[in-house]
Amino acid sequence: MDEQALLGLNPNADSDFRQRALAYFEQLKISPDAWQVCAEALAQRTYRYSELTTVQQQLIRETLISWLQAQMLNPQPEKTFIRNKAAQVFALLFVTEYLTKWPKFFFDILSVVDLNPRGVDLYLRILMAIDSELVDRDVVHTSEEARRNTLIKDTMREQCIPNLVESWYQILQNYQYTNSEVTCQCLEVVGAYVSWIDLSLIANDRFINMLLGHMSIEVLREEACDCLFEVVNKGMDPVDKMKLVESLCQVLQSAGFFSIDQEEDVDFLARFSKLVNGMGQSLIVSWSKLIKNGDIKNAQEALQAIETKVALMLQLLIHEDDDISSNIIGFCYDYLHILKQLTVLSDQQKANVEAIMLAVMKKLTYDEEYNFENEGEDEAMFVEYRKQLKLLLDRLAQVSPELLLASVRRVFSSTLQNWQTTRFMEVEVAIRLLYMLAEALPVSHGAHFSGDVSKASALQDMMRTLVTSGVSSYQHTSVTLEFFETVVRYEKFFTVEPQHIPCVLMAFLDHRGLRHSSAKVRSRTAYLFSRFVKSLNKQMNPFIEDILNRIQDLLEPSKQLFFPPLPILFVDKQ
Predict the structure, then answer these.
(1) DSSP code of 445?
(2) pTM of the predicted model as reported, rounded to 2 decimal places
(3) What is the C-alpha to C-alpha distance for residues 348 and 532, in angstroms, rounded to an integer?
(4) HSE-up of residue 411 (Cα within 13 Å, Cβ side)
(5) Residue 128, CB half-sphere, CA atoms under 13 Å: how many?
(6) What share of the chain is helix, strand, coil (3-state, %, to 5)?
(7) At what angle do helices 347-363 and 377-399 cross, to 10 degrees?
(8) What was the pLDDT predicted at 573?
(9) How far apart are CA 488 and CA 150, in angstroms?
(10) Looking at residue 316, what is its pLDDT?
(11) Would you give the end-to-end CA distance of the chain in angstroms?
């Protein structure tokens, strides 16, 4: 690189050197060989900050502060990516020098930015960059860096955190009605730092009241929700946590936030659902600690506080938006875990279990927009959401297996009775529920049709209905696949009632299975058919010759049948 041109980068360089530097780098930007010049410079001239002289290090500090001062006066703010990169530089310099050469780092910055909106913006970006350097678990640190970060946090708590918290309060107070962007940034900073600073600095009347006030300001309430979530998520004494959560809930309820049906903003409701989930789980953690400590009186109060949130939890769980529903599943799961530990359930608790069960069954259902032929990101997210619901169903089975079995049997029987006139998503979920019972009600070696007579009888009745109802002919791929998945899952049924094997084999072999018009169905059915035959090898002997005759044309690649425009199987699955 041009050494003379590089001198123009010095903030104290005269105008001639600066012009030369600008011209050089403009020329470098359009040069096809620029990458080689930069690569050589990196290879030959790599400096470590620690290798610089004291004077050079001081110059870097002064240059950064001078740049920060200049931002207060610029007619236009720097581009966002420049501000973010500058914040990273400040953060890296902070972790290097705070403990030794720059203990007044924050005070120097605060003295420059004051309450200037551009300065505040940069100050908050620097704070987020510092938090990322110190506590971000996605950043891999050496053991030495981890010890350094711990020492930095301890020193900050002793020397400057109260001052930082006061600056956040002043920023929120000054900008809450005039600059929503800066206010949201500040709320994000508070939420990030609250996990490792003294909670009493935030969880006090003046701060909490301000945050609750932000919940009523449309442009601030999502960030306020996230900030409150971080506050309630902070570890603390179980009784104090219970009091904090209850006081928050009282204010939120009196302000109308618990009236979910009157709120149309799904983005806000998703954040609010996450907050309610955090409050519910915090109360459950408090209950667990109090039970462990033998504090029965306060544990009972905590349980009562949990119970009063169940109605709100159910409203969010059943919400038509899956993101809102998904965010409350953790609270729901942990609540069921509490009920599992109780020796006797009250009538209200039994009603809650049934309500959760019905909500799960409803939310498992596909919606009209699901694209089965070209599954994309939305479809993948619903599949993941279904997995979360399955965990809830498994937990429901642990709390009340009899109730789950009876509920599934009721839904399954009523749906299969009229499957010809029922929408595909309702038929699919009815069969899916039967499929999911196999894991929700686990037995040894798949022996679902022996042992407990009432359970075996119920499952046997449902399987008999499944294979004799004709539902395998339903004209939707999701129903077809769920049918085959379920008969293979319960293959032991056919050792108890082998008379149903021929009709299931025909379903596998004809247009419903291996000769289906959908390549996806043909491919999956081929795999399931192999499992079905293998698991029932003793019962297959009378049918082997007929099976081979029926699939002979499918076993000859050179004479492979085609159902335009798709082959019998996916090419890579043949």
Answers:
(1) G
(2) 0.83
(3) 44
(4) 22
(5) 19
(6) 75, 0, 25
(7) 150
(8) 46
(9) 55
(10) 96
(11) 60
Over its C-alpha atoms, the chain yields an Rg (Å, rounded) of 32
* Signed CA dihedral, 438, 439, 440, 445: sign only: positive
Identity of the amino acid at 252? L
At a CB cut-off of 8 Å and minimum separation 6, what does 445 contact?
A: none
DSSP code for 553: G
Residues of the chain with pLDDT under 50: 45-46, 559-574
Angle at the Cα of 128 (from 257 to 162), degrees rounded to 5?
A: 80
Structure tokens at 395: 């937990």
Helices (H), 401-452: 401-417, 424-440
Q: Which residue has the tokens 């293979």?
A: 488
Task: Give me the pLDDT at residue 567, please.
Answer: 44
CA distances from 173 to 107, 142, 182, 430 (A): 20, 39, 11, 54
* CA gap 466, 499 in Å, rounded: 14
**530: how many CB neighbours lie within 10 A of its CB?**
11
| DSSP assignment letter at 196 | T
The one-letter amino acid code at 474 reads: Y
- What does the pLDDT read at residue 245? 94
- Domains in the chain, CATH or no CATH each: 403-555 (1.25.10)
Tell me what pLDDT residue 41 has. 61
State residue 554's pLDDT score.
81
Six token digits for residue 461: 């009745």
User: How far apart are alpha carbons 326 and 313 in whole angstroms?
Assistant: 11
- Reduce the DSSP state of residue 563 to 3 states and report it: strand
